[in-house]
Specification:
By secondary structure, this protein is mostly helical. The chain has helices spanning 9-18, 26-29, 36-47, 51-59, 64-75, 77-93, 96-101, 113-116, 123-154.
């Protein structure tokens, strides 16, 4: 289960901390570099490409690189778009891990203490920030909606 999804926040933080990567950009890149769930999706998509199509392209004189870019890759556009959307949303919504890994002591100027006081949160500003932060995600989803639906339909069981 932990291989397919995430091992959890605490084990990830412990590994990053033991590798002395805290407060570096590598602490953000390496833990999520190759999500295994997406690798499994892509492996199944590559296995779904018909061998006869590849053989026909090779007989017509298509090389390996051209076979990949002209035949295989266009067939996998829906699943690639789905993986891109899932990764983009995962990264956009991941706040806590970078917050913990890149935690440096912060000093707050006296002029801004009003906004950060223990009993004085301004919820109207916080909620406005939440609304503004959802705009890119909604726009990205609306632009990629067709590809998401095609990717899900391509992975569906056909009877």
């Amino acid at each position: 289960f932990a291989m397919l999804f995430s091992g959890g926040l605490i084990p990830t933080f412990m590994v990053v901390n033991s590798l002395k990567l805290t407060n570096t950009i590598w602490a953000l890149i390496l833990p999520g570099a190759v999500p295994l769930g997406n690798v499994i999706l892509l492996m199944n998509a590559f296995r779904g490409v018909p061998k006869s199509l590849e053989e026909a392209a090779m007989i017509d004189g298509c090389g390996t690189v051209r076979l990949f870019f002209s035949v295989v890759l266009p067939m996998l556009k829906p699943i690639l778009a789905t993986v891109a959307v899932l990764n983009a949303l995962w990264i956009w919504n991941d706040f806590l891990l970078p917050y913990l890994i890149l935690a440096k002591p912060v000093t707050i100027p006296l002029s801004q203490m009003y906004f950060y006081g223990q009993y004085n949160q301004q919820w109207n500003l916080i909620m406005a920030g939440f609304v503004v932060s959802t705009i890119p995600v909604v726009l990205f989803f609306l632009l990629m909606q067709k590809h998401i639906i095609n990717g899900i339909a391509a992975g569906a069981v056909k009877g």
